[in-house]
Amino acid sequence: MHYDTRIKTVGELKRSGYTPVSIKEELRRNLVQKLCDGDELFSGVLGYQDTVIPDIQRAILSKHNMILLGLRGQAKTRIARLMVNLLDEYIPVVAGSEMNDDPLKPLSRYARDLVAERGDDTPVEWLHRSERYAEKLATPDVSVADLIGDVDPIKAAALKLPYADERVIHFGIIPRSHRSIFVINELPDLQARIQVSLFNILQEGDIQIRGFKLRLPLDIQFVFTANPEDYTNRGSIVTPLKDRIESQILTHYPKSLETAKAITEQEADIDQSQRSLVEMLPLAQMLIEQIAFEARSSEYVDAKSGVSARLTISALENLYSAAERRALLARDSKTTVRIADFWGVIPSITGKVELVYEGEQEGPFKVAQILIGKAIRTEFIKYFPDPEKFKRSSDNNPYKKITEWFSKGNTVDLLHDVSNAAYAKTLEGVPGLRELVESKHAAASASEKLLLMEFALHGLAEYSLLSKYTLERGTQFKDLFSSMFSMKPGRDEDEF
Question: Model-level pTM?
Answer without folding.
Answer: 0.84
